[in-house]
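Protocol step 4 of 6: structure prediction from sequence.
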Amino acid sequence: MQVSSMLSDSEIKQFQQELYSYFQTGYEFEDFLKEYLSKMGLDEVQVTQRSRDGGVDLTAIRKGVGDFSEIDTTHYYIQAKRNSLTNKVSVQKIRELKGTIPFGYKGMLITTSDFTADAISEATNDPSKPVVAINGKALVISCIDNEIGFLFKPVFSKKQMDSFLNRTLQNGTQQNLTQAIENNTIEKIITNNDIRARIVSIPSAIMRAFDDNIDTVNVEVNGTNNYVFTVIRGRNYFGSVTTFFRDFGLLSDDGVITPKKCKWFYDETNSIVKLFLE
């Protein structure tokens, strides 16, 4: 998962402000973009000769693929706008950039702020002179996801650990991790063949724990549903399981079979098999 997807809009905006404040001048922002665009895969990125506002600040190319790299090269004229967050780039700035773009080239305007609605519309209304408009939010997200200028402190998350260990049960309850370790659960898939034959194969360790004279076993599923399964000895499987299959979606009314992973624990004190379906 990308780190930026875990951040709120307010956090992104705070980073956007910090990025803007970091660059003391527009020239510093241009120098940053030279390194940034190279990191993003553009070639021959150059800062142009310092000129008046409205000019082209950088140039770059993106080469084509394989044998067509030379004839499929895209040329970019790039303008950098180090604007405060409240100072949006106007439609006029897009038009000025378009005025400098030769036929067959593309424009790119990157800002630390945002664009007016008219500016965004203007950027794409002429396919012969398109302008890629990258606002401050998109720039921050790209920097975060590409580890440019951001450090991350790990934070322990119970939710993430539960997800890794697949502890969320089908009925929404949460199996306690400590209990799972103490119980020494056994993981086994209830397979297509099991469901088709209307049986549940019993793990060997569970089977060995049964008393020799047991013919039926009480089974608790996900801490709520209780069943009585028949023990078929010599074959190591449970019978009388069709209702259980239907209750938990392993077998639909129209015969669709859905295998599921299952964790097993035999509570010898109470002679109950506990199943935890995922």
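Step 5 (inspection) to follow. Confidence is low (pLDDT under 50) at residues 169-174.
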